[in-house]
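Researcher: Next sequence.
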Amino acid sequence: MIPSIAFLTAYLAKKSKKPYVVIALAIMAVVFTFSYTRKVQYSSRNEEYYLARSNFTDGTSSMGNSFSTIWTGWKETRPQSEIVIQNGKMTKQGTWKYLKKEFTVTMDSEGTMTFNTLYFPGWIAMVDGKEVPITYKADGIIHFAIPFGEHTVRVLFVDTLVRTVGNILSIISFVGVVIWSIIAVYARRHK
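Model: Next structure:
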């Protein structure tokens, strides 16, 4: 809106030869765009605020299942619980962040833990400090086996080789652009 009013005012001011028309157009441009000068009201919200509300994650006007991976079909319903433990229960909750969860489970017998998060390369599961295989191809959700007894479980997202190489290339590119810019400015000043 602001650019269109500015361009229209400039065009009409150039066409008009009368100074009072130019002044009137400038005043109207300021009046029509003044409401855009107020500062925006920001609310400090973290990702949990948005992920906990279905209007941000489901529905026709949101991304909804667009976050799905190649192993995941369309999800008609949301899971009742973030973690489902077959033949056991969670006894102690430790770190509980979006990309890193740590807790203790007690298993009555060998069972499976379903971590209701869509699998993507980089997710790993560890039982007592040892990485365990994740099965995900059936429904795209993270599943892994846990033996009988009490165990410390960690599920976390780590950088893959591709992400690490991409991060390194980004840093090298940034440093290269900064160095190139400094050299270009120095060369212009000393011509």
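Model: The first strand starts at residue 83 and ends at 85. The mean pLDDT is 85.
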